[in-house]
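Minutes, project check-in
Item: structure for the 387-residue chain
Input as provided by the requester:
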Amino acid sequence: MPPAVVLDRSRISDPALHAIADRVMAGERLTPAEGVALFRTSDLLGLGTIADAANRAKHGDRVTFAANQHINPTNVCILRATCVFCSYARLPKEDGAYRYTMDQVWAEAEQAAGAMTREFHIVGGLDMKAGLAYYTEMFRGLKARHPQVHIKALTAVEIAHIARIEKMSVRDVLVALREAGLDTMPGGGAEVFSPGVRATIADRKLAGSEWIDVHRVAHGLGIRTNCTMLYGHVETVEDRIHHLGMLRDLQNETGGFLAYIPLAYHPDNNELGAELGRQGTATTGVDDLKNLAVGRLFLDNFDHVKSHWIMVTPALSQLSLHFGVNDLEGTVVREKIYHEAGAHTAQAMSLDELLRIIRGAGKIPAERDSFYNVIRTFDDDPTRAAA
């Protein structure tokens, strides 16, 4: 068990944060108004101090990561024209459109052979020719070739798409995918649940309530999932808190979420970025840290908050380990979706680099499985490791 945590109140300068800190340390749930206040405070250090204390109360100084490999089997997407924030999707005959054959999937997955990879993270577009048979064949083939590797695959939007084109229920699709080898689901496609925001950035995409319903069904089948929020485009802080409230409510109901991962919007190479005049201008480090810290504090029924170093840089992810984060995106191997949108980070990270980042923050690195069970811990003394 982590040791008792003492909050250093001298690091909190905003008087409004003191009352919130008292409630957090007492284990009381924050209200939406308090969540908005956290986003609006100018006291970033104070916010981080409270989030760090809440995190250390759960996890001590341990920071986890997974040895994972991303596979993006198709970028063909029927919502190409309406998801204006997306830089990855293509129409079937558009330049750059692709759909992997099974042999291409096996070839890309072969990098896991003899490596430390423990998880395949599989997401793509809403492709009319990538239905249930495509994915069940893929998952069965991956399990036959790499039985030791966990399959985390398909967002709620992709699951609902398969159900529509196959004229099946979401439940029946999930049962078939589970039988083929699906272990858990990622949390993408959530964007921001506000209907007004969705109408602006992702018209015709699965509604927020429908996204919640897919995850509710998955949880009912024993399929654990992650959840996300795409921030830094046209949403308000009130929209963000409403989104987090919906996630918190479903977690109360099902307990099926494993982790929360806020995702920073990247404006390059997409219509929304051009409309906003934001080409080449990503989210600020302050906003990135606020989204992680507020996630830790508002989502009191979540154990894990992850920083996605691909989207916010390894340096900011390292800093986030003092802003409520207890998990880093892992080794990844050839990520495509966010790099199409202008991410300038590497497409993979070595084990040594992950360990360097975590140790450099004075934390204890630990490899985990997809259910957040620790497999091995690399250091018992973070002070010594960081020296």
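Outcome recorded: The chain has 17 helices and ten strands.
No further action items on this chain.
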